[in-house]
């Protein structure tokens, strides 16, 4: 894990050349392969008679990679002390195109699932540098343990933070699990949700942004030449049969079920391009289902701009004692 105030490898190397009066680093691009999903860049660098070559999927990544290798060699020769001016860990996820990508985030989540640990939370800590040469720092947190990593892409920074966390906790998982394990009820809830979701057999459209969620239903209605007037009777009654009628017309799969027994929680899942879930608590299974149905009508009224929305729609919700 990098020290909190560590600089990028390229910056540390530049400061090294200034301090020791070497010529500034000159990054020589020796290979540039673009136009595909897997761009390839190789930079060659020579500092203080130390040479290295670095690979990256972007020019910035390749430069940081080769700077890291030069610093490592300078340290091995006793010319550079990493403790006096530490560099951020800026390892590429692969040293060459022949090395497969390791999905550290998925591996970390699998490890957490195995030991019933809280799932990792990722937060963006900082973004520095001009638009063409940015560095992203991400934090990975599990319980009280935190790791950070920096890269030229958000996704890579997240993966590197996950990699550091994976290596950090794998040896202490049993002890960590004892103090932070998810309860059996938590695991039951997760399994139930996955079970419900699998019944819809929906493959979401990954070209749709989550920001488009509020327009998804309107888009379907426009495609099917429907208007909110077609649902006026259903909104007047606001019952389960009405929901079935609405979603049949929209050709949208959905499912309502009891997500948790005690306390009762009703759950509704919808097979849309931007899948979403509605959950409501109740004092009985029947009560929870009614509350879910009312919440779905409220959601539909908001996203479809229903002009005859009853202001008291929420009063149909069954009280929870």
UniProtKB/TrEMBL annotation:
Record field: transmembrane: none
Entry keywords, A to Z: RNA-binding
Domain DRBM positions: 8-76, 103-171
Molecular function in Gene Ontology: double-stranded RNA binding; siRNA binding
CDD domains: DSRM_SF
Cellular compartments per GO CC: cytoplasm; nucleus; RISC complex; RISC-loading complex
GO annotation terms (biological process): regulation of regulatory ncRNA processing; siRNA processing
Classification via SUPFAM superfamilies: dsRNA-binding domain-like
Pfam family, one: dsrm
InterPro entries hit by this protein: dsRBD_dom (IPR014720), RLC_Component (IPR051247)
PANTHER family linked: LOQUACIOUS, ISOFORM B
Protein's UniProt name: DRBM domain-containing protein
